[in-house]
Amino acid sequence: MDPFFSWDFFSCLKKLKMMSVCGHFVIFFKCTALLSLRIVLLVPAGLPVRSQSVSQSDKNFLGNITVKQGETIFLRCAQGEIVTHTAWLNRSSILYAGDEKWSVDPRVSLVTLNQEEFTIKIENVEMTDEGQYVCAVQTSRRPTTNIVHVLVQVPPKITNLTRDIVVNEGANVTVLCQAIGKPEPTITWKLISSSGDLSTDDAYLEISSITRNRAGTYECTAVNEIDTDVKTVDITVNYAPTVYDGRDIGVTLGQRGVLECEADAVPEADFEWYKDDRRFLNGFDGMEIVNTGSLSKLTFFNVSYGDYGNYTCVAINKLGSSNTSIVMYGPRAVQDGNGSTLGVHLDTCLLFIVFLFLLLKL
Ligand SMILES: *[C@@H]1O[C@H](CO)[C@@H](O)[C@H](O)[C@H]1NC(C)=O
Ligand SMILES: *[C@@H]1O[C@H](CO)[C@@H](O)[C@H](O)[C@H]1NC(C)=O
Ligand SMILES: *[C@@H]1O[C@H](CO)[C@@H](O)[C@H](O)[C@H]1NC(C)=O
Ligand SMILES: *[C@@H]1O[C@H](CO)[C@@H](O)[C@H](O)[C@H]1NC(C)=O
Ligand SMILES: *[C@@H]1O[C@H](CO)[C@@H](O)[C@H](O)[C@H]1NC(C)=O
Ligand SMILES: *[C@@H]1O[C@H](CO)[C@@H](O)[C@H](O)[C@H]1NC(C)=O
Ligand SMILES: *[C@@H]1O[C@H](CO)[C@@H](O)[C@H](O)[C@H]1NC(C)=O
Ligand SMILES: *[C@@H]1O[C@H](CO)[C@@H](O)[C@H](O)[C@H]1NC(C)=O
User: Ligand 5, atom 8: nearest CA belongs to which residue?
Assistant: First the structure.
């Protein structure tokens, strides 16, 4: 008969337990050696096999128990007609020897111990509880080891995610999304504003020489068989302003005239208005500059001759500037429909005014 399942083994267990109290070191070491030896044999490195042979002991593989983290598992073990000794082991440690609790873990408790079954439960299962559990049974006829493999599943959780970033166009960008979970979660990246996943299936999303159309909110998804976790990262791409070509306008004297200038820029551009070399600032008589986001409006409430001319709108942010010219011209030039005649027209007008002015002075 296998020494492990003989009375010696169980008396050893008893003695081993008493050792802490009595301090019989010799017996202690003997027993520990015996136990270690048996446990090595009992819990082989390879997969346990169901053995039908009538050897020294029957070894039954009771199968796998798959459990989600935080749940409770019940470890059931059938007992023989005349069970003399029985124990539940976690790897090399005894959880219960009969109804005696050896484990100090409060999550482990006895559910049933009678002639038919020996059941213990483990509450709030953790990842470290994964592994082989063995129910060793000694009956009057023969010893039996029942092996059950506990597999713990953990929902994915994104634990390490790059913070929102702001970069300049052309920069190389790397964003990290790390997740834990069991089975190991797979990571996918998606730019929310565009359709389809990005090519990368890696924790690292690498974008070389980023362009403005790759800016946006990126979604990292960690998936395993149990659940999904999603988190987002905002990537802001800065770039210098581009001013859209201005539209020349024709305005009758005394009317309201509005010059519009629109710029695409990140961060949003500041606008400056010039006529020839003179900068226009808000608060000048009879005009107003209003900036709303990407649009700047220069409004003349009552257009006079002197207001006609060639205006320049300059959009500026920290990465650069861009400008466009907008001509405000009078009604006659509108009919001409030619920029060059306008110039002539304006010049003639100005000359005429100056001439009038001089005449009046004299
Ligand atoms: C039990 O789980 C192991 C992996 O941990 C696997 O190799 C084995 O096939 C499973 N056995 C059964 C019966 O599901
Ligand atoms: C089982 O053994 C492992 C390794 O020693 C330990 O981390 C885990 O807490 C044990 N679980 C129970 C329920 O005893
Ligand atoms: C997150 O990832 C960075 C870069 O790989 C690493 O330095 C850091 O230790 C990680 N943090 C955590 C909590 O895993
Ligand atoms: C981006 O990476 C490429 C190589 O992949 C390198 O040649 C280039 O200089 C990098 N650009 C910046 C701005 O670091
Ligand atoms: C526009 O200006 C002219 C001359 O400066 C003035 O005569 C006229 O009343 C003004 N019109 C309005 C609507 O203010
Ligand atoms: C307006 O001025 C800009 C330079 O300030 C010049 O490039 C452009 O040709 C001018 N437009 C007209 C119609 O004169
Ligand atoms: C307008 O842009 C041109 C180049 O596109 C530049 O040479 C010029 O100096 C700019 N004008 C102003 C007023 O910024
Ligand atoms: C407009 O001016 C250009 C010169 O800048 C000239 O070649 C063209 O003939 C003019 N067109 C009209 C309709 O006056």
Answer: 254
